[in-house]
Amino acid sequence: MSWQEYLDTHQDRFEQELLDFVRIPSVSARPEHMRDVERAARWVADRLAAAGIENAEILPTTGHPAVYGDWLHAGTDKPSVLIYGHFDVQPAEPLDLWTSPPFDPEIRDGRLWGRGASDDKGGMFIPILAAEALMAETGRLPVNVKFLFEGQEEIGSPDMPPVIAAQRNRLACDMIFSADGLQWSAQEAQIVMGLKGLMGVEITVDGAATDQHSGLHGGGINNPLMALSQLLASMKDAQTGRITIDGFYDDVIDLSDEDRAEIARVPFDEAGYLAETGAPASFGEEGYSVRERLWARPTLEINGLTGGYQGAGTKTVLPARASAKITCRLVADQDPERIAALIAAHVEAHLPPGVTAQVDRLAGDADPFLVPRGHNATRAAEEVLAETYGAAPYITRVGGSIPIMTLFLRELGVHGVMFGFSVGDENLHAPDEFFRLENFRRGQTAYCRLLEKLGG
Ligand SMILES: [Zn+2]
């Protein structure tokens, strides 16, 4: 039998097993489900062992556990591949909006419905099944494979950085594939090449010691709210959308003609985009398409602005203090630390007279991420997706960040490739989450092909 025949023959059992897996309510956000996350970890470790993976074990953390397993007998001339996913799920509420209960999953219309079916239990089960099929049919795997599955992705992986740092040698690898990822649509594949980073600051401008009467003191002292507005306005050109902070774009990797052609190839309906947001027109950095700005150009946005009187009617006050929260979405190779320093320098240089200002960092930094062109793992994934979907995958980027990818890059020095088979319309994080069984099967074939290609 070939591995494809093995997959075809055992699909019913795989679906029943996925139903069992989804039945475990491994909601990482809720303390009352702590034991369920542990049960899911045990399920995963046992399932890895049943597939023929060795050293399958639960890795304790200070919070929810992770699971590791490996098979390292392909030979030192073969690459070592790390496969990642997560077995925790989002809370299922509001429960009354589910057609069938979130933790009593069922199969309807070629889809498996239940919390975590798509994100990421169905996704992370796929490479385990691919490994089982290859092991069953050939007695081995074409490459050295390490699995790392976590139980806290949906709460931001708070305890994973020390675990990955501590296990750095054991997790050392040549390539990383994340089984937690989306394809472009049910029938179209994508390769995500870039993710944006994040950096935030709060700027506080102080004037008088307390709020003052604008009739008594207006014209005598400066108004922190006006000064802050002028300061903020000096950070971005109102017409071109260019950020005017000195050095802000210094480390940005410019789009090549090839990058721009790849982005232009991805369908984009600007009218639909505007209708979806409700904005009267698009706006952003001059010289770039909307999608280029969304995916590959950095941003600076005011997220909140506070000061003075906000109630009904008029209050003739000169506020003593005004503040603004700002975040920047960063692109490779911008560094959150450096951008924060540039903003602080801009504030110092452009602060209107008669007030003082303070710049404080906000939590939640993320480094930008961009897979280098010609990257070996990405090329293999592209070829496999083209074979499996019958057309070349779209080369895309994401405006948000995925912390585990930057964590892997920092700790293991490897750019991960998203190789997951969910689709964005599958109600991830919402009621009636489902996973298309067609893509559950397609993913198994794709992972077998990928491991074979990497070993060949
Ligand atoms: Zn996920």
Structure in words:
- The protein has 456 residues and is α/β, with parallel strands linked by helices.
- It has 2 domains: 3-194 and 368-455, 3-Layer(aba) Sandwich (Aminopeptidase); 197-252 and 298-366, Alpha-Beta Plaits, CATH 3.30.70.360.
- The protein contains 14 helices and 20 strands.
- The protein has helices spanning 3-23, 34-50, 117-138, 160-166, 168-171, 214-217, 224-233, 257-265, 270-277, 290-296, 336-350, 376-389, 403-412, 437-455; strands at 54-59, 66-71, 80-86, 106-108, 111-113, 144-150, 175-178, 182-183, 190-195, 197-206, 212-213, 299-307, 317-318, 321-330, 356-366, 369-370, 394-398, 416-418, 422-423, 434-436.
- The strands form 6 sheets. The chain has a 6-stranded mixed sheet with strand order 1-2-6-3-7-18. Strands 12-14-10-15 form a 4-stranded antiparallel sheet.
- Helix 3 crosses helix 14 (437-455).
- The longest helix is centred in the first third of the chain and has 22 residues, at 117-138.
- It is elongated and about 90 Å long.
- The model has no long low-confidence stretch (mean pLDDT 96).
- Bound molecules: zinc ion.
- The site of zinc ion has 5 residues, from helix 3.
